[in-house]
Amino acid sequence: MAEQYVAAVDQGTNSSRCILFDRRGRLVSVAQREHRQLFPRPGWVEHDAEEIWRNVARVVPAAIRQIGAAPSQVVAIGITNQRETSLLWDRRTGRPIGHAVVWQDTRTDRLVTELAGDDGADRFADLCGLPLTTYFSAPRIKWMLDHTPGLRQRAERGEILFGTMESWLIWNFTGGANGGLHATDVTNASRTMLMNIETLEWDDRLLEAFDVPRAILPEIRPSSGVFATATEVLPGVRIGAALGDQQAALFGQTCFSAGEAKCTYGTGSFLLLHTGQEIVRSKHGMLTTVAYQIGDQPASYALEGSMAVTGSLVQWFRDGLGMIHTAAEIETLARTVEDNGGAYIVPAFSGLFAPHWRSEARGVIAGLTGYITKGHLARAVLEATGFQTLEVVDAMNADSGIALTALKVDGGMTANNLLMQFLADLLDVRVVRPMVTETVSLGAAYAAGLAVGYWPDLEGLRSNWHRAGQWMPHMDPARRATEYANWQAAVQRTFNWIRTEDQEL
Amino acid sequence: MPGTVQSIERAAAVLRLLAAAPDGLGVADLGNALGLAKTTVHGILRTLHQVGFVEQDRSGAHYHLSDAFGRLGESYLDPNELRSRAINWADSLASRSGEVVRVGRLVEGKVEVVHHVFRPDDSDQDLDVGTTLPPHATALGKAVLAYDTSARPRTLEAYTTRTITDPVKLGEELATVRSRGWATEFEEHTVELGSIAAPIRGLGGLVVGAVGLTGRIERICDSRLRHRADLVTMVRATADAIARDLRDDT
Ligand SMILES: Nc1ncnc2c1ncn2[C@@H]1O[C@H](COP(=O)(O)OP(=O)(O)OP(=O)(O)O)[C@@H](O)[C@H]1O
Ligand SMILES: [Mg+2]
By its UniProt entry, which Pfam families does this protein fall under (chain B) (predicted)? Predict the structure, then answer.
């Protein structure tokens, strides 16, 4: 019998990928296509959802062709996606209403401040586990409905559908306007601010607070479980899973038990700690989120520390400043100097996420002197990811009461040895990279393969996990303390940059 | 007598014009100057861009010579970029073969380890990225040395009794590597260890490094002490996959 594979579709912020995995969880082929980042105004970030679907429809067959396989050798599709990016589309035509509004977009600044009112940003945290910030979908949906004439009325009449990217893909994979399935999963729904974190259902109190008509919302399903059989691109293949990229990475790192954690280093970076079936409320700026739900089993939860700008700071260094040609070259440039020379870059491009949650913060380069060269700035760019991780780990340790002893990492930035060593030094723990850095895709494949019986159980998946690399801490504790203190001082300087009167609607 | 290649003549003309235009030139400027159709100029520019000789400004409207063009003798592929491109495939090779995987490139007559993947048995291992290996005594080294005549080491130090120390024998061995497309090592660097490596070819066929696996002789070789054919196939497929990624986009 011909070898069988699971296809993971990773619809990310910058690109869409399709990766095939074999039964041992080994990557066998990859096809990838970038899509355009649209910046119509400062602080606004959009994607063209039709372009994204076209890309997905190309990378899936390309990945299969790469190894000369037949589509029938694919037993399931697992979908994973950039989270919180929000799209409205026309139920009848299947066409998007405008562009998708991306998770980094800050146009809802003002709206979020208004909604917080006197109750503060944690007004809805009991219900949904999340603070009010520009990051999540609900304020964005409200903004879209309020800023397109007649759209709210159409939404109320049931003519408009809302979805994050996995919903858009599932709908298109299953025929779009011709009978497409309108569904999401618990992990993606847990990022909207509209789902009740305990009941895992849309909550009327939240819908009312954000003025979101129930008619536009997709059905919430478990993350792992057959959603439907595809009719487009891979007709006849079952969609076995959908989950947000960070939750997928947690799954791909086989963090199946309470206390297990991982950090994924991509465009942004996200540390997730599995908390079992318990809903843990953070006192230190972590988010409460759904980790995954397998079939009709109870859901697992996680605490999350989100860093908005990590790999994208490297991209800015490359494209915005033109200092390097490829992201990886930053390591070469950084190695031309011994240290950061006293410079710190705090990339509060869209405010600061965890653990600060300051939407009004904006980035700074602190400690600039005439001594600073490109090399020092390259170091500062990489170190910014390290310091942000340390802040998040500190907060996570404070919440969980146990100190992390090793950090499991994955994502594109783990190819950077200088950064990985800096992380180990700064956190004073081992940093461990598994055999698959594309852990987001692996997790989606695992969840889909489980749903169709390609893999029998979680234990089997655990035995696929192997260490591919490891970095040990060496930094002198006094130096670590000074560096961290400098960083914290730099962070203070980002606060209160945007004053309310500057904001435009 | 073989003819000349027209597209190279045109590319040379484009390069001359760009070199003389500090503010860069657009596709139309070049087309007008050379009497060529826009699509032709566009194809030439895209290729020159891909090989790293020209760059586009932020708007994408103007092209100019890249600084890399003035430094053609230097390695054109950043080692960290090579690691980024290799990482998925090197991981896959390690988990498929069960052995240690390394990616290396030639720097000043030595093989620099650019990437290292642990043997997937979760035993204690240390990353040796950045360390160097002797090219004549390792499969990784022979896989790059075979394609770089300027880099032959002058003294061939012995690491074991099996290390090739005779330049003539090394020359023959490298010719074999070229004809087969892959290199081997049999206790030439470390007793009881064997290795298989293949060259990674970037744009235009340039060898930019090599990828290989290393393990105990009894796992790397069959009962007749020949390097296992299935492992050779895996290593070569890995080198090809990395090469495809390198050529795909930039
Ligand atoms: N060697 C490197 N050193 C530093 N940063 C790197 C390196 N390689 C990649 N990056 C950064 O990592 C990010 C890409 O990693 P990855 O593909 O995992 O990101 P991602 O978040 O999954 O992408 P997407 O946004 O499409 O989901 C980019 O932001 C890039 O700048
Ligand atoms: Mg991603």
Answer: HTH_IclR (PF09339), IclR_C (PF01614)
Distance CA A232, CA B136 (A): 54
Round to whole Å and give the CA distance between A193 and A202: 9
Q: DSSP character for A443?
A: H
Question: Tens digits of per-residue pLDDT, B178-195?
Answer: 999 999 999 999 999 999
Ligand 1 touching residue A30 (CB < 6 A): no
pLDDT tens digit sequence for A452-489 = 999 999 998 999 899 999 999 999 999 999 999 999 99
Complex prediction ipTM = 0.86
**Ligand 1 and A441: CB distance under 6 A:** no
**Residue count of chain A:** 505
Q: Quick one: fold of B75-246?
A: Beta-Lactamase (3.30.450)
Least Cα distance to B130 among A386, A411, A327, A331 occurs for: A331
- The whole-number pLDDT of residue A502 equals 53
Cα–Cα distance for residue pair B170/B154, rounded to 1 Å: 11
DSSP string covering A309-340: -SHHHHHIIIIIS---SSTTHHHHHHTTSSS-
Best of B65, B67, B80 to disrupt the A interface by mutation (most A CBs within 10 Å)?
B80
Number of residues that this document lists for chain B: 250
Nearest residue in chain B measured CA to CA from A435: B91
| Nearest Cα to Cα of residue A464 among A236, A251, A210, A164 | A251
- B81 → closest Cβ in A326, A412, A467: A326
Sheet order of strands, A224-229 included: A27-34, A15-21, A5-11, A74-81, A238-244, A224-229
Alpha-carbon distance B171 to A92, whole Å? 71
Write the DSSP symbol of residue A294.
B
A41 at the B interface (CB within 8 A)?
no
Domain positions in chain B are 6-72, 75-246
**Distance from C-alpha of B207 to C-alpha of A135, rounded to nearest angstrom:** 45
Q: Determine the topology of domain B6-72 in CATH.
A: Arc Repressor Mutant, subunit A (1.10.10)
- A469 contacts in B (CB within 8 Å)? 116-118, 127
Rounded to whole angstroms, the Cα distance separating A165 from A253 reads 23
Average pLDDT over residues B68-96: 85
3 state DSSP class of B49: helix
Angle, vertex CA A198, rays to CA A194 and CA A200, nearest 5: 55
One-letter amino acid at B191 equals V
Q: Are A81 and A244 in contact (CB under 8 A)?
A: yes
Domains of chain A in sequence order: 5-256+437-464 (3.30.420.40), 307-434+468-493 (3.30.420.40)
Q: Could you identify the atom of ligand 1 that is nearest to the CA of residue A314?
A: 31
**Cβ-based burial of A453 (10 A; exposed 0-12, middle 13-18, buried ≥19):** exposed
Contact A491, B146 (CB under 8 A): no
Tokens, residue A72: 């029938």
Place of tokens 């932020």: B58
Cα–Cα dist A142/A149, whole Å: 13
